[in-house]
Protein 1
Amino acid sequence: MSVLKRHFDNRNDLIAYVKELAPWAEGDASKILGGQRECKKRLTALDAIKYGKTRNYGNGSVSMLSPYISHGVITLNEVRNHVVKDSNDQKSIETFIRELGWRDFWSRFAENNKCFLWNDVEDYKTGYASDDYQEEVPEDILVGDTGIACIDAFIGDLVNTGYVHNHARMYLASYIVHFRQVKWQAGARWFLSHLLDGDVASNNFSWQWIASTFSNKPYFFNLENVDRYFNGIVDTTPSRNRVLDASYPTLHNRLFPNLELQNG
Ligand SMILES: Cc1cc2nc3c(=O)[nH]c(=O)nc-3n(C[C@H](O)[C@H](O)[C@H](O)COP(=O)(O)OP(=O)(O)OC[C@H]3O[C@@H](n4cnc5c(N)ncnc54)[C@H](O)[C@@H]3O)c2cc1C
């Protein structure tokens, strides 16, 4: 059995070695750096108070620690202890600690409910049955050519960097399941093949939450919402995002015609 090389003079040599081992891997290496030094930098830069106020915005103070957590460079406890030690007001860091808690919750739930990792926890609450959804992610989504500017930009993040902001993950997952009627499992599989922080529990249960198979209603969004949180970060011009440019009641009635109609 051959032993994998572990020491390299520089990052380019490492990338060349990985390409040699995996010639089928397409595209360039992500610009996001791995390793303990980079992880420490992100931990030091983390502002948990600002995080609480801005986390939903595309340019908010998110930690970008997930790739390091997922690869075991740092534990959830270490992140938590760092934040708690730096704070003299526990209330102001509550939002950040709660998000760490979600990761812990998904992982514990998965440990005790392995059967639900790839199966619906409950039925869809969309007026459709699981069989009504497509098995595969359509090609235009895979290549980021849906014709919806903001969605294509988020797909670009996923495919080119391996990191997507949480709110953008929600938009993408919702677009795939509800606007395109694709099974959450197909979308979840696709995300896992690109995400640097790919974690089957956090990923799949988040997909199920969006789909409504692990929540009491489907999550959907409109262009106004994307514009509110990602204005200036992605193109939110109405003419380039037509499918999303509608009120919530209109979209609700279009996406879920079998449910009770909503007035708006
Ligand atoms: C459809 C979908 C798929 C997802 N897939 C993954 C995945 O494969 N791996 C993954 O680690 N997270 C996943 N998440 C959760 C979340 O989007 C990421 O953890 C977060 O965006 C990572 O960026 P960050 O480190 O800057 O997070 P921050 O917002 O800075 O949060 C700090 C840490 O808290 C944890 N965290 C934050 N939000 C969540 C959340 N909603 N659920 C679980 N943990 C959270 C993460 O460990 C994160 O690193 C997914 C969410 C959605 C909606």
Note: The two ends are 65 Å apart (CA to CA).
Protein 2
Amino acid sequence: MNNISQLISLLGGTGAVAEKLKIRPSAISNWKKLNKIPSNKREAILELGSYLNVNIEKFLPSKKLNNLKFKMLLIICGGIASYKSLEIIRLIKKTDIELDVVMTKSAQKFITPLLVTSLNEKKCYIDLFSNEDEAKMNHINLARSPDLILVAPATANIMAKLANGLADDLASTILLASFSKVIFAPSMNPVMWNNLATRENYRKLLDRGIKFIEPDTGDMACGENGTGRFPEPKSILKFALSYIKENQILKSQFKNISILITAGPTIEEIDPIRFVSNKSSGKQGFEIASELTRRGAQVTLISGPVNIPFPDCKNIIKVKTAKEMLDNVTQQLPTDILICSAAVADWKLIPKTFSNNKIDTNNKIKKNNNKLFFEAEKNPDILETISKSNVRPKIVVGFSAETTNINQNAHSKLMSKNIDLIIANDVSNNKVFGKDFNKVSLIEKNNYEEWKKQSKKSVAYHLANKINDLLINYNKRGVNA
Ligand SMILES: Cc1cc2nc3c(=O)[nH]c(=O)nc-3n(C[C@H](O)[C@H](O)[C@H](O)COP(=O)(O)O)c2cc1C
């Protein structure tokens, strides 16, 4: 007797199963013959099994994620829905996902670590200050090794902690120390969910790239009605799996594509002490470098002097002046894509005296040269030089920081400099430089899009999508040419 025949007989036989599922008995006979249950009937069989208390899973092949080796960390927080995380563990155990589980202290008031350990067949982590685990810096390992961290249920408390950088237990320390993708599945009383503090924390986390599975609306365990209900574990896992798949696809989206990115300001020294530069922080360019590296591109980042940490990309070149930046860009060509996000100082200032006395700029200029003036010498325009050269990459993207007539100015730059795409932003009143948010317009020859204000990380994400479209179009044109 094969697996499926055994299962059908445990469920009451061909006739009974056919009746329960409202299908013809010949269909069930067919399943038995093929030793296979069609995927659209799998759920119905599982439900029937749980209704009749028959353990179906050992008869059905597990639904594996196609060749996807994946590590997930589930963080269970303390709320009414904590017990539903047990169902999430059960569902994950049917996939190929390697699962670790962390519980907060409050979660342990609702369900026990022992229950989690036995379901996951693996130690459940509960303590930041564990002598035994911390011998191997467990909190860092738990933070770094998963591809995805799912916080389910996520309490108002854990949202507030991460939004404000608190790390006073294992769960919050892991979240703060991680580079992994993070999904929050919040569940709480509707008043807690709508509280301005929670709304603000939600916004902050969203802007930092955390994904949310929005809570459902309806009757709550606390007797109130509104938004805050924990979604069904099945739909949480479905969301997480499609997110994993999307990321797996994105990971190789720019495979074998070389991308050169300039970022930050440049500086032009007047003497060993003074210089002329601008307020660019490099944040937007660094986010773009990170995003494209995450998507599999071979990124070379050429950065002017900045005060922020460098992203984790293949090759980083540090420069000071516009000329050094141009020289290094030229040396790195050919590449498939060039993104010029650096704010290159347009001029260098040459100090002069009215009496035409020679000034020694290798040493500090003394104040006794009291009648100084500066001659502005134009720096090379890197974007224009490269995009009009015979080593022009397939795609050239520029940035245009403006204070007036933003879009018109950016559009004329696009046309006159032969650029494929310009990101224009209004930098008046200190709105952009050094900030974590950006409000930009995207300008192409025949397309204009005004993007809402969003984090620089999010701008990088959407820009990467756009560049991918441009590359696909370029390749199509190449094939059709
Ligand atoms: C019976 C009970 C139910 C609770 N349910 C929730 C809930 O559903 N969502 C929530 O955010 N907090 C809920 N709380 C409050 C959290 O348990 C509390 O904020 C705790 O500090 C959360 O800790 P954690 O985020 O470390 O798990 C509940 C508290 C109690 C006593």
Note: The pocket of flavin mononucleotide is lined by residues 77-81, 104, 106-107, 155-158, 187-188, 192 (CB under 6 Å).
